[in-house]
Amino acid sequence: MPNKPYYPEEEKLEQKGWKISYWYVTHKVLLRRILIVALIVFSAMTLGYGIWGFLDYFVLSRASQRQMIQEILYATPLTQDWISTHAPRPIESSNVYTFAREDKYDFLTKIENASPYYWAEFDYKFVFSGGQTPVEKSFILPGQEKWLALLSFSGQSRPTSARLEIENISWHRIDVREIGDYAVVQAERLNFEITDVEYVASVALDKQAFAKTKFSARNLSAYGYWSVGFYIIAYRGATPAGVNFVALDRFASGEKRTVEVSWFDTLSQVSKIEVEAELNILDETNYMSI
Length: 290
Fold this sequence. Notes:
Helix content: 25-40%
Order of helices and strands: HHHHEEEEEEEEHHEEEEEE
Largest sheet: 4 strands, antiparallel
Number of domains: 3
Oligomer: single chain
Number of helices: 6
Structural class: alpha+beta
Shape: elongated
CATH class of the largest domain: Mainly Beta
Radius of gyration: 38 Å
């Protein structure tokens, strides 16, 4: 077996250096191209980041940054007067009316939320001499005045000295930044046209007389609702003489429906019928999906 040639350590290092030099000379052009491409990519990334930062500051985030600066500069101090002005106010109620229908009784009152920044969910009942009604749930929107009723309460005698009791109030502050001008939102979404209101004082059915009310309701909003309630108030002069309620399910945008409700009693000397929509437009679950 032939012996391998022997090279001193100095010659080995010299040969290795020649190999590296030879590889560099033969790949010099390729290395230069790689370096140029790397520099181009790095420059492009740096320039792109700079352009994006410029656009983000002066174009994309300009409005939000300006709003943030204005909020910092013109922020209203949380004084006691500011807190008291913007805090929820107690829900006010008017006189309670009671209406008899055979052995059933209806309760009716008008409530008002004077808070322009809050809406509320709550439990309520009517308390009277010798008893009270079951607890029901309702709501009231910001700045709203609305009817509130409890129908078909069974009692041995007509309730007297009735009053409304509200409990378990849950206040919700509206986000003006999210919804904008609430008055505009309410006008657009709580938009129902009531026409062709007709009251028939006496209708015979199975030898029994009762009253009946008809009206047409059109949903003029751009939204469909799973259910919309309507209070029907019968007046005798300027005083409510009876109350009824009906709910329209799956009330689509632009849809018009003819509604007929029976009073199961005869109401004499009815001078006016008022129809009021009952809908929480701030509850997203009330909206039908498109």
